[in-house]
Amino acid sequence: MPDLHKATLQLMNGSSVQPMFAKNHLLFSLPRGVGSNNDLDWHMDIPLLGDTSIPGIQLFTFIDSVGPREGGTVAVAGSHRLGKSQQANSKEFRIQLERTEFFGQLFSSEPSEPSHIFDAEGTVDGIELKVIEMCGEPGDVIFMDVRLWHTRFPNFSERSRMMLTQRFLPEHVRRQVKNRYYG
What we know:
By secondary structure, the protein is an alpha+beta fold. The chain has a single domain (2-182), classed as q2cbj1_9rhob like domain (Jelly Rolls). 23% of the residues lie in helices and 26% in strands. The protein contains five helices and eleven strands, in the order H-E-E-E-E-E-E-H-H-H-E-E-E-E-E-H. The strands form three sheets. Strands 1, 2, 4, 9 and 11 form a five-stranded antiparallel β-sheet that branches. The longest helix is centred in the last third of the chain and has 12 residues, at 171-182. The chain is globular and about 45 Å long.
């Protein structure tokens, strides 16, 4: 645990952060074809606040193994650099991004076309973007900027899987998010 705290401080340039929620969230996916929702829900985890500094990070902790092309969480590497000086919630910013070729194709893709999504690369506003899968073994942790566009992906494996997630934000960001969007 001290190593995770140290890594969090380093990623946040020394800013102290607090969990966004009182408890970690359990992410659970049923195996292929077992009554799960297969819609993609591309989103950011907090709104854009018009500030170019890192507003927070999210940790994903693997409880079960998630291998390549098995349908773990997917994210668009580099997307946290888009629109940094804007103020917009995920829905408002998504409308802007849908007008670009890269996100227009990505947001309209069906999860039945995994290779199309997993191999997606492009450029928006001069920023290189690439879809990546979150793969790992029990105990592995992935850190992610909370502005990164991501979605759960249908579980293509034959077994149920679990991950834990938590967002960590500086107190001033927690207040801004709460006041502006949940107040």
